[in-house]
Specification:
Length: 137
């Protein structure tokens, strides 16, 4: 059985220049917002690498809610790591469904490499907009 890299290993060894560039663009974009004490929604968390990057680079994160369409997207050991870095919780969501969150609940909503997998991109984006606070990013 092949053991997948932990998010710490993945963070310390980006697989390509493209991945390094994605991280840099993501971090610079979030820095420009200048968020303090934010609650963020990660849509389709994958293995949790983006939440790890967030926690490692920003101290102003109050909470990250990570979602995915599978029950255990993030390995147990990485879940423990993320929870040791900040308030992190996971919630399974239905593919192409309504997000189970109140309107304007998050200061920041982000997703990477997922919209191309949705059957209804308009619903996918409109739901993220619905749960984003006015003035959020």
């Amino acid at each position: 059985m092949i053991e997948l890299m932990s998010i710490v290993e993945q963070y310390s060894r980006p697989s390509s220049q493209i991945e390094s560039c994605q991280r840099e663009v993501f971090l610079n974009m979030v820095k420009e917002f200048g968020f303090k004490d934010i609650t963020a929604l990660s849509v389709s968390t994958g293995n949790g690498i983006w939440e790890y990057i967030f926690f490692k680079n920003f101290s102003g994160i109050k909470k990250i809610v990570a979602t995915d369409v599978v029950e255990e997207a993030v390995k147990k050991s990485d879940q423990m790591l993320l929870r040791s870095l900040g308030t992190w919780e996971f919630q399974k969501v239905e593919p192409d469904g309504i997000l189970p969150f109140d309107e304007q609940m998050f200061d920041l909503v982000y997703h990477l490499d997922v919209i191309e997998h949705t059957d209804n991109p308009l619903l996918f984006l409109s739901e993220q907009y619905r749960v984003l606070r006015s003035g959020g990013g």
